[in-house]
Structure formats: C-alpha cells, structure tokens
Write a structure and sequence with these properties.
There is one protein chain. By secondary structure, this protein is α+β, with helices and mostly antiparallel strands. It has helices at 26-32, 38-41, 47-53, 71-75, 96-104, and strands spanning 14-17, 23-25, 54-55, 58-64, 84-90. It contains 5 helices and 5 strands. β1 and β2 (23-25) form a beta hairpin. The protein is globular. It starts with 13 loop residues before the first strand and ends in a 17-residue tail after the last helix. The mean pLDDT is 90. One of its GO terms (cellular component) is chromosome, centromeric region. Keywords: Centromere, Nucleus, Transcription.
Length: 121
C-alpha cells in the first residue's frame, strides 16, 4: 500500500471525507476524487467541492486492510468501502445542497461523522 504513504511534510494537507471519512491529501482528492463517494460528491478536479465536502479537522485514524471482515469497519460504518486510512470522527457537515442531492437523487442517508447524530436518530 505504498501508494497511500504520506510523507511527514505532507501531513498538514490531510483531509477527511465528510461522508465516508477516508483520509487523503488535498492533492489526491483533487487528482483521484473520493474512492467511495466520487459518484455523488464529484470531488475530482474541483477544489471548491473538496473544501466543502472534506475537513482538515478529524480525530483518530483507523487503517483498514480488509473492510469487509473487520469488526472495526462494521462499528465505524466502513464495511463495503475500499482499503485505506479512515478518520474516527470528522468535524463539519455537508452543505445543505449536497446533502439534499445525495439523499434525494442517490437515496443515500447521510449520517454526519462528527458525532452529532447516530443511526437511531
């Protein structure tokens, strides 16, 4: 997984997706988009969208090698996502227009990853 390596001088550019909580650099979000959410967030090549749908403020990290078999992935609602590094908590929430779009067009229930809501809400 050397493609996921982040040099120490690049760690200040890390951001976490507000939908799936994957942690990558700003440049990687810009170049590749979010590997889990690109279909509806459209981050690739869009700095404004990256700024509004990812956050530099997150707590803790989890490295998932096999998200489909990991109990931690299930606990964090990450099962089914790609292998990678994920934040435990991501500060901030999606803009209302993006949230409405993913809930109405893509039928995806958005649960903020900042701890403000739970699946039971």
């Amino acid at each position: 997984m050397s493609e996921n390596y982040v040099a120490p001088n690049q760690q200040r550019y890390l951001r976490a997706c507000m939908v799936c909580s994957i942690v990558m650099t700003f440049a990687r979000f810009r170049d590749e988009g979010c590997p889990n959410c690109e279909e509806f967030l459209h981050l690739q090549g869009s700095p404004d969208q990256i700024e509004s749908c990812t956050s530099q403020v997150f707590e803790g990290i989890i490295t998932l090698a096999n998200p489909n078999k990991s109990w931690v992935a299930k606990w964090q609602r990450l099962d089914g996502y790609v292998r990678g590094v994920y934040a435990i908590k991501v500060s901030g929430q999606l803009p209302d227009d993006v949230r409405t779009s993913i809930e109405e067009e893509y039928r995806i229930q958005y649960i903020p990853r900042d701890g403000s809501a739970t699946e039971a809400d």
